[in-house]
TrEMBL record:
The keyword Oxidoreductase applies. This is 2Fe-2S iron-sulfur cluster-binding protein. It comes from the Bacteria. InterPro entries: 2Fe-2S-bd (IPR002888), 2Fe-2S-bd_dom_sf (IPR036884), 2Fe-2S_ferredoxin-like_sf (IPR036010), 2Fe-2S_ferredoxin-type (IPR001041), 2Fe2S_fd_BS (IPR006058), Aldehyde_Oxdr_Iron-Sulfur (IPR052914), Beta-grasp_dom_sf (IPR012675). Pfam families: Fer2, Fer2_2.
Length: 184
């Protein structure tokens, strides 16, 4: 129990998929629970709830984040994108389209996190971020080709219990091709 005079909850405003939501939250509430349990945005999945599986990945200010390790209060005022905000109306985002076309999933439980993570990967790559698989990390070398090794390394925080990895790597590679002009 908190000492007298210390508040354990606050009213916060979350910016999610272009909408504003003001809600009271206990300070211990994760962004994942706020999205799923309070805002009914259940596309973001809870797998391990301890930062190990990537199922809860969302974009915060265009960078990927595991929402189970992010406090809702820390996300206040940031631009949050969940899987519900990725498509443009009825038009799938090229990353979603590639996952559909290349069978980048089986049960689909990990897929929202995989897709949000792939969006993060494409942006990080366009921004010139190296990965542990990048051979030449000198800034002047520029972004490395998105080889299967690069994609596997960059997507390694997202687990898939169904083992759809081969198709996921192909889908991310195709999405990279299809979004070359739009990322960055
Ligand atoms: S639920 Fe967040 S990383 Fe597994
Ligand atoms: S598609 Fe089933 S866990 Fe990835």
């Amino acid at each position: 129990m908190a000492p007298a005079g210390i508040s354990t909850s606050s009213s916060i405003t979350l910016h999610v998929n272009g909408e504003k939501y003001t809600l009271p939250v206990d300070h211990r509430t994760t962004l994942l629970d706020a999205l799923r349990e309070r805002l009914d945005l259940t596309g973001t999945k809870k797998g391990c709830d301890q930062g190990q599986c990537g199922a809860c990945t969302v974009l915060v200010d265009n960078r990927r984040a595991v929402s189970c390790l992010t406090l809702a209060v820390a996300a206040e005022g940031r631009e949050i994108t969940t899987i519900e905000g990725v498509a443009d109306g009825d038009e799938l985002h090229p990353v979603q389209q590639a996952f559909v076309e290349l069978d980048g999933f089986q049960c689909g439980y990990c897929t929202p996190g995989q897709i949000c993570s792939a969006l993060g990967v494409l942006q990080e790559h366009a921004d010139g971020w190296p990965s542990a698989a990048t051979e030449d990390v000198r800034p002047e070398a520029g972004p490395p080709p998105l080889t299967p090794e690069e994609i596997r390394e960059r997507m390694s925080g997202n687990l898939c219990r169904c083992g759809a990895y081969v198709s996921i790597v192909r889908a991310v590679a195709q999405a990279a091709e299809n979004t070359k002009e739009t990322v960055a």
